[in-house]
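Regression test attached.
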Amino acid sequence: MKRFRIAFALVAAAFLPSLAHAQSPWLDKAWVTIDGGFQPSASSFSAASTFRINAEAGALNVSYPVTRATQLDFGGGARVWRNLGVGVAVSFMTQSDAAGISGNVPHPFFFNQPRSLSGQSAALNRQETGIHVLALWMIPVRENVQVGVFGGPTYFMVKQGIVNTVSYSESYPYDSVSFTTADTADQSKNKMGFNVGVDGTYLLSKSVGVGATLRFSRATVNFDAPDGTAIASDVGGVQAGAGLRLRF
Amino acid sequence: MRRLVNGPVVVVLTVLSAWIALQTRAAGQVSARSATVMPRTVEDLRQWDSTVDSMVRGGELRLRRAEQDTLIAGRVHERLDQFSHGVRIFGGDLTRQVDRGQTVSIFGVLYADLNLDTTPGLDAVAAQAAIERLSGAARPGVAPELVILPTPSGTYALTYTEQIWTDTGPVVYFVDATTGAEVWHYNNLQTQSAVRSGKGVLADDKKVSMLATAGTYLADDQLRPPTLRTFNLNGNLTRTKQFLNNVITLGSSDVAASSAEPWTDGAAVDAQVYQGWVYDYYFKRFGRRGLDNNNSRVLGIVHPALQSAVLQASSSDQDTFWLNAFYVHPGVMVYGEGLPSNLTVSGQHWTYLAGGLDVICHELSHGVTAYTSNLIYQNESGALNEAFSDMMGTSCEFFYASVRGKTGNYLIGEDVVTPGGLRSMADPRAYGDPDHFAIRYTGTQDHGGVHTNSGIGNNAFYLAIEGGRNRTSGLAVTGVGSANREQIEKTFYRAFAQLMPSNATFAVARRATIQAAQDLYGAGSQVVTAVTQAWTAVGVN
Ligand SMILES: [Zn+2]
């Protein structure tokens, strides 16, 4: 949540002065945005677990990177009252990264002499689809420049490859283990979150323009770990996009 | 390969499931036809019920066991074996579930067309001899069972069968009842590897490599290359002696076993664990694979006698089976039972000797000697034989200092014979043993003082590592230092296991160890200097 507050504060600081001065009416009936963009922030989530083998507890940690990724974003809406519009935007993001695997596997002959295990899964796909329902307050700053601030609920649909089992090989005298494979399976989870953001449009004509959007959306989904526990993963984040703007 | 889950672990290990191999087919077989009994309707069930009753009356089915149902009160489960002319048919049996006289279910496999002549050509004694010949193992006093064997190829064979413990586990043999030729065998090892926790003689926690069987765990290491097994003779000295005299063989029921965790039979735990550690020490330090460098078996025996019966034993038995551990070639170690805590010898308490890592490594090193230099157990070569076992025993202790949380030392047996242990390599004279060739024992006791004059070689080994002065000669040695002890261990191992002849003298040992040091570290090396000075200091030139 901390990152969200920072982002929102920046957005507010940047546009509140404009808000105060911009009292011009917004006359468009509806709008459409088509953006290409990216999610500039990298993050990760991880799953830690313990297991028992060789009469001792071992540990396994799987770290899933969520790196910068490009996304496709389109949306539209209609003005409902004065400068207020309601709309919906849909963002698609897909990426592929290997999960990092590390662990300690107890030695078969000795207590407190764990063998370290490390490896990488095959590339795991992550797809995030966000359906952002938004209320938008549009501020025509100049005749051909509009700034809209928006916010609302987001419905996230996330598909992520999750490591189910990790295999290793060992041989006498068992002083080390070698990672061999990680079995993975895709999991799909849906979760309601929120979005806030700002959109700037430069109109090239009455109905066509270009623009940029900065959006922060967020939800936390729980994937299922094989041991029945939850693997929490943040979805959304800061999304920046630019593209075509249509006005009707 | 093992496989572990992100969370609860799933270990995928090779399960040594029972396997059956058709070996040969004997003459005089007839076709086998089997019927699976699995009535599905009430009528079928009634019919089979009366068939079973009539077969019981006719002696074709015989009740093997009737067990009360532990989940549904009043029900009884009968197991019946199929017989033909008084001979059991292997695999022909059925179960009948009865509820207060009313049959509820029947399942089984019965064989038909049994017109085989059931008169064996061999008697049980001859069949037993044939099975022992095939298996290479002996099981005296046991009679094999005459059975009709339906073979996988669809014939019947009149055979004798018996399960016998071999180096690969319990194998069930079937030999032709007329010719004694093998018809079938299968390994009845229904097991997999298991690592269990246990408490050693000194109540320390250890991991024991065992073999999991149905509901229990046997001291039979499945993780290391050789057979490493510990037998528990439960204090039966008669059987111990019979085994050592080859009168009996030990079977799966003699393998030390535990179902509880941690396993608390300290002697069995330590024997099994330390035998493995010693194998590992030789492998990691010298690249040696077991006693013969070819993964020969290691069989330990714990509780060879009853600790509490020591006072009733003869003094030679006391010295052998209570106050001693010994190696019997090939690969058998017997770990003495020690004394009850209220008894002492010369003020020293003796607990189970398997509790001493240096003791076990000492005994197993006699095995290495037996397979290598085979130093004659008499006079100087015998003293060198003993000294090598002490050197390796104490080296094991140093090797495992960190995992044991206990620093090594140059005392022998100090963990199990308290206080003080049996010998000192640093100062043999403190235990009445010579540390110098000039004061060696020259009598005839103890094979010419093999446990006494070992002090001379022991002190040379100690000085080559740690340096210092020999107490008798006062000569100083610059040792390689304890951080480099591996160099001296390798030097002495090389000399004793690879260079020395069976009738070596101390002088030969000096020359051989110097040669080994030159081979490994160069003629001008500090190791050569240390070894040379050490032998000079103990009066061996
Ligand atoms: Zn000895």
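Expected vs. actual: identical. Chain A is about 10% helix and 75% strand.
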